[in-house]
Amino acid sequence: MDSKNSTKPKHIGVIGVGSFGAVIANILAAKNPVMVYARKQEVVDEINTSHTAQGKTLSENVIASTDPEELCRSCDVLFFMIPSAGFQEVVRTFSPFLFPYHLIIHGTKGLCLNLKPGENIETVKKIKRSQILTMSEVILEETVAVRVGCLAGPNLSKELAQGQPAATVIASKYNEVILEGQSLLRSEKFQVYGNSDIIGVEISGVLKNIIAIASGALAGLGLGENAKGLLISRGMVEMIHLGNALGGSIKSVMGLAGIGDLVTTCNSIHSRNYTVGYRLAKGDSLDTILADMDEVAEGINTVRIIKAFLETADLRAPITENLYRVLFEDLEIEAALHFLMKYPFNVDVDFV
Ligand SMILES: NC(=O)C1=CN([C@@H]2O[C@H](COP(=O)(O)OP(=O)(O)OC[C@H]3O[C@@H](n4cnc5c(N)ncnc54)[C@H](O)[C@@H]3O)[C@@H](O)[C@H]2O)C=CC1
Ligand SMILES: O=C(CO)COP(=O)(O)O
Does domain 200-342 have CATH number 1.10.1040.10? Predict the structure, then answer.
């Protein structure tokens, strides 16, 4: 099947109409017709009749379908905007209809695991890098697509939806993916940078969620800006060492998808990860918080994965390790903070 034989105008595909997918669909719809994929027929009907998706307003340039084949036939470029927990399953649903000409960009800030049948993160205590998949690795493993990219940066969906100025990074090994992403998304309110280190950019977006949970916890304890500055700078160092161990470049952590997103999410009540930490510090249990949240806070699962990775890596990540104990072993946040304040960090900058 050759996409060039089609005479119909091509849509840009968006898979997932959650908070971020809806915003990206609207940004794309300013320049091109967009087709979004949703699993539920009632969501598709709502979009096609009233141009809303569960409370979020969508452009009239957006249509919806429940049919992955229709998306793949109608769109040469597809944006996957699905949380990591459902990512592999959704990519598998699309895989039979994808061809090498498709260009795929994802916006997911989480990780997947490549474990044996019957194993899961609860049962496997130690994880090697080869058992961790970024979302671009999932796409490359599950499909025939080659031109794959990711989108990451300080992009709180609530602010983007209000049309506030922001910027993002499109990362890919292929310059044409970066150029296509820039051309589709860029506007006077949305700047789009390029980066060829896709793993570094993906990992930056994933790891900042851990530090955002910790930042929310500091705020929940009523601590001030000195403590936050300390957390953000030491968090960045932890991201650099972990990012390096996971195959990313230091440079990407220093960029928009790393330090840029870290500052944003460590400071915003609109960040779900920050909110998790804040509520924990106010005394809510993780189970209560998860039961209340209808959106994803990727950092919780990421903490678990990185803790298991640390068991096989020659590396210490004290913020992540202590946050793991707070989230999953009932360590008091004050005790974790006390431990970190006594931790013998000596060298300020040890990564350049
Ligand atoms: N919301 C934000 O400000 C930003 C979110 N992100 C990342 O984008 C990803 C998605 O986040 P949100 O849109 O905020 O999440 P969300 O929880 O608001 O929405 C997720 C969407 O994915 C759909 N979905 C989940 N599993 C599915 C499946 N198996 N098949 C089909 N659809 C499925 C849900 O129905 C929902 O529409 C996350 O990895 C998040 O870290 C990145 C930047 C900003
Ligand atoms: O990644 C985000 C903004 O860049 C969104 O952060 P949360 O997932 O914590 O809401």
Answer: yes
Q: What is the pLDDT of residues 198-233, one digit of tens each?
A: 999 999 999 999 999 999 999 999 999 999 999 999
Q: Does ligand 1 come within 6 angstroms of the Cβ of 301?
A: no
Specify the domain boundaries for CATH 1.10.1040.10 within the chain: 200-342
The pLDDT score that the predictor gives to residue 349 is: 81
Name the residue at shortest CA distance from atom 30 of ligand 1. Answer: 90
* 133 touches 112 (CB < 8 A): yes
Give the CB-side neighbour count of residue 331, counting CA atoms within 13 A: 19
- Cβ(298) to ligand 1 under 6 A? yes
Average pLDDT on 299-326 reads 96
Is the CB of residue 235 less than 8 Å from the CB of residue 274? no
CA of 23 to the centre of ligand 1 (A): 11
The class (CATH top level) of 3-196 is: alpha beta
Active site residues: 208
Instruction: Name the DSSP class of 97.
Output: G
Task: Cite the residue boundaries of each domain of the chain with CATH code 3.40.50.720.
Answer: 3-196
Do residues 94 and 143 lie in contact, with contact meaning Cβ atoms separated by under 8 Å? yes
Distance between Cα 15 and ligand 1 center (Å): 9
In the chain, beta strands by DSSP E:
11-15, 34-37, 52-53, 56-57, 62-65, 75-80, 103-106, 112-113, 132-133, 147-152, 166-172, 190-195
* β pairing state of 56-57 and 52-53: antiparallel
Give the count of beta carbons closer than 10 Å to the beta carbon of residue 275. 22
Ligand located closest to 264 CA: 2
Report residue 196: phi and psi, to 5°.
Answer: -90, -5
ipTM of the complex: 0.98
> For ligand 1, is residue 20 a contact (CB within 6 Å)?
yes
Measured CA to CA, the distance from residue 12 to residue 145 in angstroms comes to 16
